[in-house]
Amino acid sequence: MANSIFSSQLLMLLPLLLSSVITEVAGVTRHYTFDIKLQNVTRLCHTKSMVTVNGQFPGPRVEAREGDRLIIKVVNHVQNNVSIHWHGIRQLQSGWADGPAYITQCPIQTGQSYVYNYTIVGQRGTLWWHAHISWLRATLYGPLIILPTHNVSYPFVKPYKEVPIIFGEWFNADTEAIVSQALQTGGGPNVSDAYTLNGLPGPLYNCSAKDTFKLKVKPGKTYLLRLINAALNDELFFSIANHNLTIVEADAIYVKPFETDILLITPGQTTNVLLRTKPFFPSATFLMMARPYVTGLGTFDNSTVAGILEYESPSLHSVVPMKKLPVFKPTLPVLNDTSFATNFTTKLKSLANAQYPANVPQKVDKHFLFTVGLGTNPCDQNQTCQGPNGTKFAASVNNISFIQPTTALLQSHFFGQSNGVYSPYFPINPTRWFNYTGNPPNNTMVGNGTEVMVLNFNTSVEVILQDTSILGAESHPLHLHGYNFFVVGQGFGNFDPNKDPKKFNLVDPIERNTVGVPSGGWVALRFLADNPGTQELEVKNKNAIFGFGFVMPSRETTSLWRWREARLARQKKARSSGMEMWRSSGMEMWR
After folding, report:
1. How far apart are the C-alpha atoms of 128 and 130, rounded to whole Å?
2. Higher pLDDT, 36 or 534
């Protein structure tokens, strides 16, 4: 099925053979079975049959240690095709276990099974797993906890207890019907009916007081909260009333600790925080709440999810029953508080010490500028569409919207049958030049294709992701499969290649696998392309379904690169007059 109306992509090709030795920590083999099955679940006084893993919502916790091998058998008992992605796992030499449907594998069909077999190399912390086809990840998701190897301690105080908390969404309607309608009409998809904490909407929603997540704690203890944002597209503010949190990890990477009473977490991101409880029983309960950070013009779920932080009573016969204790609420930022969002993200720094270094590429072999945002596609003949001026919304990267293939890309490459499946000529710069964050161009139509970007093994890469205001600026959560990257810089307006790199942090930038491209701004990433395989770059849009990008293995020789670079040079020369016009007008363009 062609998803070009809502999605965008880029691809890179890497050689199949590693030229370096991967050092693995000896571990054990852990087996899990995921039975994909329908289960009746009730929330908001609404019962529906939905797709689950082992009948659980959220799904089961997968736990391992660094160096362990995971063998997870997924058996599909439902009518939907299914695949599972292990979000944040690098999949070194096991790219076929990454999970995105039609990218690294064909989906698991009804009555069939697939075994995901991979080893966790050089990673420890909080990650998560989720379905990676259509919108099944709205109900198919769960925590993936990687503990340090034995006899290796955390670089922070040992917690009394560890608690995963997953932010999610609840839809009264069938999410597959929602995405199907959006693809057909070209309009923005309907929003959720509630946010959830560990699958529960909490007391601020109708008919949900009994469906409330409660975190019961003891006074004078330190708890490690493993926060995961599994919401489809919404960034979330989170806070616990009258308590500070110490940020110690982001996307399974240790960070320089800092205290905050509020945090921001983007879809796909994880954040570990230390919660130090009060030294004595406080004779009160405290709400922990989350609500969206909103940019752009699209619709969103304007509601708040709440759980309860409840102290264990010092006496079994407390004078005041828990239900009668006063309840304190946190104060969250306003919905569009970009100032807070920016200040919070800039505080995140890698630990960058001898044990956990920040190996930021200091030189760059390949520079890419990718514009991300919304455009349009024409409405199908004899159909009424709900996008701008009767068109269909289309997410794009460099004005190219992704067409999902019907053959898995890794499979087609491996068997030398990629002709007609994908094209290896994704543009390194925008195909159309304009003032990205200023007045939009008159023509909002995007191109469509399944195009890839070719990279040689061990290429050091710098990617500038630039938001556009074509149909309204908005933030874009971005996830790169198979890699971590360093966020070396970010800013607002158009990226200036002459001025902005001088302010890059190349010492201790945050290292992660998911980042938000600022609304009306840009973010600069660096990484080393040292992981052969089909790696996907997802760029999400609130008015679109999803965006795609990939890093693929390659058998191509350097002659392909020489031919392609010559082709791009000719294209650049042909555009030079137009580019000079923008430069002379004071527009900040990539060159």
Report:
1. 7
2. 36
